[in-house]
Write a structure and sequence with these properties.
Distance between the termini: 114 Å
Keywords: ATP-binding, DNA-binding, Nucleotide-binding, Transcription, Transcription regulation
Helix content: 40-55%
CATH superfamily of the largest domain: P-loop containing nucleotide triphosphate hydrolases
InterPro entries: AAA+_ATPase, AAA_lid_NorR, Homeodomain-like_sf, HTH_Fis, P-loop_NTPase, PAS, PAS-like_dom_sf, PAS_4
Protein name: Sigma-54-dependent Fis family transcriptional regulator
Largest sheet: 5 strands, antiparallel
Shape: elongated
GO molecular function: ATP binding; sequence-specific DNA binding
Strand order of the largest sheet: 2-1-5-4-3
Organism: Aneurinibacillus danicus
CATH topology of the largest domain: Rossmann fold
Number of domains: 4
């Protein structure tokens, strides 16, 4: 059989569209598949110039260069379709005599791709909205806090271990919960463990659980440990720096082997949890002192996040107060607002107990408040006077005595005496501020400075 006698039959049998042009760009052939797929009868296109039918046709490039274009994408404006094509030069005795194009309509695929991209964009927008809601309690204007929140957002989607550093009361568990809720494990359990509260004798049974009959008085059927209860979710190890070296070794082994054995059992249980740890200790200093295992530190410190104290982000006080009051208003069924005067007093206090202390103070205030707004008298004296509960008055007096013998000390003593005298002769602090001719913020700063009550 001579194939050349059957070439047209072969072309007509193809399911892909075929178009042939001569070297001058005239369309000399289209197969039946072309007419069927694109709805163009052969007699309406044959003998027409390809440049007239499709001015930007990629075929023109092959006619010009003699180089094939394989798996080439293009959009045919004349047909309003997207196509993939193999465009190959036809050669005879080394001379270009035309071009043959075999093409496939991918418009449906392209439409599906665009639809998928729309869904991806929509999904990304929903995820951003969800993350914004999840991290709303961590909103901040302070650079240090914003950096911490940004790291938390970035790491949330992974399973990387996070180690949170921060003073007592800064909100380490709030951070941990936000990371958990924004993660793929967000619909699984979040189990928080205060490591300092676990007695060494109960450590293994509480964390790993125990089998029935493991010890005298053990519960029938045994008990699931906190590790097992957190399966698939997140395990928050709070106050990790309080663990003894013996218990540190226990935790390290579980983290290394990603499995545990219940007390009284022999079966190994896989550990499928995301670990977030937190501490208010300087773990590096503890390592140097031999109080914290170096291998455990590096196992936990994959992504460290340092949460700044409230005194370093006082510009966030309005946000923090609003978030806390949102819950307290519902709890006490009181709609109480915060005046500028109260804000200014709060800004003069350093909040050594951080967000936890702020929450405690606001709850105390809303409990005793009889108006629709807070007044300075609602604020606990130690906050109003700008001193922490644990400040040493002897140390403060000693500092004042040192200053008394020099010019700045004399100026400060005079200023203090004036403040005390004006306060004695004024009915309210507002009146005292007006007499002194200073701002309210400066007034309370000086009260704090001179420990005037």
């Amino acid at each position: 059989m001579k194939l050349e006698n059957h070439l047209l039959s072969i072309l007509e049998s193809l399911h892909d569209a075929v178009l042939v042009v001569s070297k001058d760009g005239t369309i000399v052939y289209v197969n039946t598949a072309y007419s069927v797929q694109f709805g163009v009868p052969a007699h309406k296109i044959i003998n027409r110039k390809i440049s007239e039918v499709e001015p930007q046709a990629r075929i023109l490039e092959v006619l010009k260069t003699g180089q094939p274009l394989i798996n080439d994408y293009s959009y045919l404006h004349s047909l309003n379709i997207h196509v993939f094509a193999n465009i190959t030069p036809l050669m005879e005795k080394g001379e270009l005599i035309g071009v043959v194009t075999i093409m496939k309509d991918i418009s449906e695929f392209y439409a599906l791709q665009e639809e998928l991209n729309r869904y991806k964009t929509y999904s990304t927008q929903l995820e951003e909205q969800l993350n914004k809601r999840i991290f709303s309690l961590l909103e901040s204007h302070a650079p240090g806090m914003r950096q911490a929140v940004n790291i938390a957002k970035k790491v949330a989607s992974s399973d990387a271990t996070v180690l949170l550093f921060g003073e007592t009361g800064v909100g380490k568990e709030v951070f941990a919960r936000a990371i958990h809720e924004a993660s793929p494990r967000g619909d699984k359990p979040f189990v928080a463990i205060n490591m300092a509260s676990l007695p060494e004798s109960l450590f293994e049974s509480e964390l790993f659980g125990f089998e029935e009959g493991a010890f005298t008085g053990s519960r029938r059927g045994g008990k699931k440990g906190l590790f097992e209860l957190a399966n698939g979710g997140t395990l928050f190890l709070d106050e990790i720096g309080e663990l003894t070296p013996f218990l540190q070794a226990k935790i390290l082994r579980v983290l290394q082997e990603k499995s545990f054995i219940k007390v009284g059992g022999t079966t190994t249980h896989p550990l499928n949890v995301r670990i977030i740890a937190a501490t208010n200790k300087n773990l590096q200093q503890m390592m140097r002192e031999g109080k914290f295992r170096e291998d455990l530190y590096y196992r936990l410190n994959i992504v460290p996040i340092t949460i700044p104290p409230v005194r370093e982000r006082k510009q966030d006080l309005p946000i923090l107060i609003n978030n806390i009051l949102g819950e307290l208003r519902a709890k006490y069924k009181k709609q109480v607002t915060v005046t500028q005067e109260v804000y200014e007093i709060f800004e003069c206090y350093d909040w050594p107990g951080n967000v936890r202390e702020l929450s405690n103070v606001l709850e105390r205030m809303i409990a005793i408040c009889t108006k629709s707004y807070f007044i300075p008298e609602d604020i606990p004296p130690f906050v109003r006077e700008g001193t922490s509960l644990n400040e040493n008055p002897v140390r403060s007096t000693a500092r004042n005595d040192e200053k008394a013998m020099n010019l700045p000390g004399i100026i400060e003593r005079t200023e203090k005496e004036m403040l005390e005298e004006v306060l004695k002769t004024s009915r309210t602090r507002t009146e005292a501020i007006q007499k002194l001719g200073i701002s309210r913020k400066a007034f309370y700063r000086k009260l704090k400075k001179y420990n005037i009550k």
